């Protein structure tokens, strides 16, 4: 590791390299292309930051390009890399969708960064418009590679890679091993070494995986409201449907629950503001989708809630990886009915996750059996306690107040009777006058 990095490493409070950081350090420093696979929260961003930044030459054009699947993750990676890049006199800029294109281009041309972190769509657009020159690129990192090399995004990543020099070093990082990784070497025309440390990594803390019964969307929204009132609760809430996300957000807002949404057509500034508020504990529930929350690092996140259950084991792994990071304890809450839970257990049969029924009792989430016992004990207790005897002084004050109120009521009734009599007298007088006029 670079000497300046070692000093900052110690000053920042790091004790030792994680399994993935140690595993890829030598090959990346030597210029080899690698595929690094490690659990979420194991320090993959620093795993490629530390060995690659020292190989970048200041003021020599764009040399390191990092691709991220979302704006949030791109901004997060930019922040991390910038902290270490400034030690070497290097500039880092993010180029993502959702931000003003013209301002991004103007800033890029003015600052001339050596490192760019971007989303594939925006990078390809800038290449098509000839606003990026890839001829000087020496290293290309594809983060969250199982996501970026799936479906339509794979073609975009391949198009970007083709614009780089033939000897560009490639680095892919992921928390899960997708089938696409078996063809990586053929796909990109060079040998790519696989470094899988999932079995050796022990950076994750103890995470409990709970099953909480909530059958309908309305019941699930009500359960979120109840969970938000439990002690020190704060969670990232996952949805598969944008429509359901917005429905739930509306319900929570109406109920006065501290919540916000992340994703959709939000501007980059709005997303940054939401993430900042959530990290500062100003928001209890952050409602999001798999795409928007992929790879996000939220320190000491207490819980993850699967409002809609994931459809694949890989999605479950990525979702639950947001909690229990860096040795911290975590909690995963899966909402659904018995049928949903059977499907989820079948989906996760080959994993080591232990799914336990849970319920809320006394504003605390606990094992379902324990919650049932607590609720049964509470129901057995007397519902009403005998009223305490009133103090003599309190009784006298109450009697005096009652006399004053009675006197005031009598006064009002007397005035009402008087007004009624006056109105009756006027009416009779008017009737007599009308009768007299009619006789004439």
UniProtKB/TrEMBL annotation:
- The membrane-spanning stretches of this chain are none
List every stretch annotated Disordered. 377-440
Family annotation (InterPro entries): DEAD/DEAH_box_helicase_dom, DEAD/DEAH_RhlB, DEAD_box_RNA_helicase, Helicase_ATP-bd, Helicase_C-like, P-loop_NTPase
Q: Name one Pfam family in it.
A: DEAD
Checking PROSITE patterns in the record gives: HELICASE_ATP_BIND_1, HELICASE_CTER
What is the protein named? Atp-dependent rna helicase
Q: Does the keyword Hydrolase apply?
A: yes
Cite the Helicase ATP-binding domain residue spans from the record. Answer: 25-195
One GO term describing the cellular component: cytosol
The Helicase C-terminal domain covers 222-366
* Low complexity composition-biased segments: 377-398
Q: Where is the composition biased (Basic residues)?
A: 399-429
Query: Which family, according to the similarity comment?
Result: Belongs to the DEAD box helicase family.
Q: Which UniProt keywords apply?
A: ATP-binding, Helicase, Hydrolase, Nucleotide-binding
SUPFAM superfamilies documented for this protein: P-loop containing nucleoside triphosphate hydrolases
Q: Which organism is it from?
A: Limosilactobacillus ingluviei
Family matches, as SMART domains: DEXDc, HELICc
Which molecular function GO terms apply here?
ATP binding; hydrolase activity; nucleic acid binding; RNA helicase activity
């Amino acid at each position: 590791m670079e000497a300046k990095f070692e000093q900052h490493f110690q000053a920042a409070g790091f004790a030792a390299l994680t399994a993935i950081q140690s595993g890829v350090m030598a090959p990346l420093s030597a210029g080899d292309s690698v595929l690094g696979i490690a659990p979420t929260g194991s320090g993959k961003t620093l795993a490629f930051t530390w060995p690659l930044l020292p190989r970048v030459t200041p003021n020599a054009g764009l040399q390191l390009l990092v691709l991220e699947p979302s704006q949030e993750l791109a901004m997060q990676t930019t922040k991390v890399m910038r902290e270490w890049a400034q030690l070497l006199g290097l500039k880092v800029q993010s180029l993502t969708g959702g931000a003003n294109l013209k301002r991004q281009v103007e800033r890029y041309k003015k600052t001339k960064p050596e490192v760019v972190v971007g989303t594939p769509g925006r990078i390809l657009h800038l290449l098509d418009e000839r606003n990026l020159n890839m001829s000087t690129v020496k290293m290309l990192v594809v983060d969250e590679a199982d996501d970026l090399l799936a479906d339509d995004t794979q073609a975009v990543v391949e198009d970007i890679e083709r614009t780089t020099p033939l000897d560009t070093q490639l680095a892919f990082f992921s928390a899960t091993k997708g089938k696409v990784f078996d063809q990586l070497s053929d796909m990109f025309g060079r040998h790519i070494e696989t470094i899988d440390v999932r079995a050796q990594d022990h950076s994750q803390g103890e995470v409990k995986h709970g099953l909480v019964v909530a059958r309908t969307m309305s019941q699930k929204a009500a359960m979120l409201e109840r969970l938000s009132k439990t002690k020190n609760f704060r969670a990232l809430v996952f949805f598969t449907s944008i429509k359901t996300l917005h429905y739930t957000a509306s319900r929570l807002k109406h109920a006065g629950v501290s919540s916000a949404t992340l994703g959709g057509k939000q501007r980059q500034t709005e997303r940054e503001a939401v993430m900042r508020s959530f990290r500062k504990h100003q928001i209890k529930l952050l409602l999001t989708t798999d795409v928007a929350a992929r790879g996000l690092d939220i320190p000491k996140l207490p819980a993850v809630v699967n409002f809609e259950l994931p459809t694949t084991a890989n999605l479950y792994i990525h979702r639950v990886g947001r909690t229990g990071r860096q040795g911290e304890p975590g909690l995963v809450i899966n909402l659904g009915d018995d049928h949903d839970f059977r499907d989820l257990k079948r989906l996760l049969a080959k994993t080591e996750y232990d799914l336990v029924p849970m319920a809320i009792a006394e504003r605390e989430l606990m094992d379902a059996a324990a919650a049932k016992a607590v609720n049964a004990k509470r129901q057995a207790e007397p519902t009403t306690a005998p009223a305490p005897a009133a103090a003599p002084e309190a009784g006298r004050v109450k009697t005096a107040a009652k006399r004053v109120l009675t006197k005031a009521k009598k006064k009002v009734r007397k005035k009402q009777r008087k007004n009624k009599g006056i109105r009756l007298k006027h009416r009779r007088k008017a009737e007599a006058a009308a009768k007299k006029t009619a006789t004439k």
